[in-house]
Amino acid sequence: MAAQTNAATTTPNPLRGPMRGLTLQQAADHVVTTDPTFALSEATIRGVTYPVFANTPKTVPEMMLAVREVHGDGTDDYVVFNHERMTFDGFTGTVHHMAAALRDKCGVARGTRVGIAMRNLPEMLVLMMAVSSAGGVIVFLNGWWTTEELDYALRDSEAQLVFA
After folding, report:
1. What angle do CA 136, 138, 141 make, to 5 degrees?
2. pLDDT of residue 9
3. Residues 3, 4, 9, 15: is their CA dihedral positive or negative?
4. What is the pLDDT of residue 6?
5. Which residues contact 126 (CB under 8 A, 6 or more apart)?
6. Could you report the average pLDDT of every consecutive run of 10 residues in the chain (164 residues)?
7. Sheet holding 113-116, edge to edge
8. Residues 70, 140: Cα–Cα separation, whole Å
9. 122-133 and 88-106 are packed helices; what angle lies between their axes, rounded to 10 degrees?
10. Which residues touch 17 (CB under 8 Å, ≥6 apart)?
């Protein structure tokens, strides 16, 4: 596998170069100390201290904005399914509109549990990101479950809205 060269950038072969021969821990240490995207800090959650990424976006909308430039400033294909294509901007625009509808018309707010029982389609991706953007919590449901299993899952999760 040869390295690809472009006038603007060079993508090295991962099997050659400075990372070759490093242990997994050494490689991880290298990445978190040389790339600010992966810098670590600590957070205490319910009395337990965890290592966390220090520079990650705090919300889904912030994350989508932060990664836009690596997707051709929004013009690159982002979701491709059969003959359907969505650019990054098209995808995030649809997510934004769906999140607004979930908040404004369905009352989804921080902590609202939203059930999803859908096939792996682009609409499911949009819905997952929109629910998260609106502050909701996704409850994945299996469409093949029996009535009793779905009833239990919905009651146990306290889902207030379901997409199927």
Report:
1. 150
2. 47
3. negative
4. 44
5. 91, 94, 95, 98
6. 46 55 87 85 95 87 86 92 95 96 97 96 95 96 94 97 95
7. 137-140, 113-116, 161-163
8. 29
9. 60
10. none
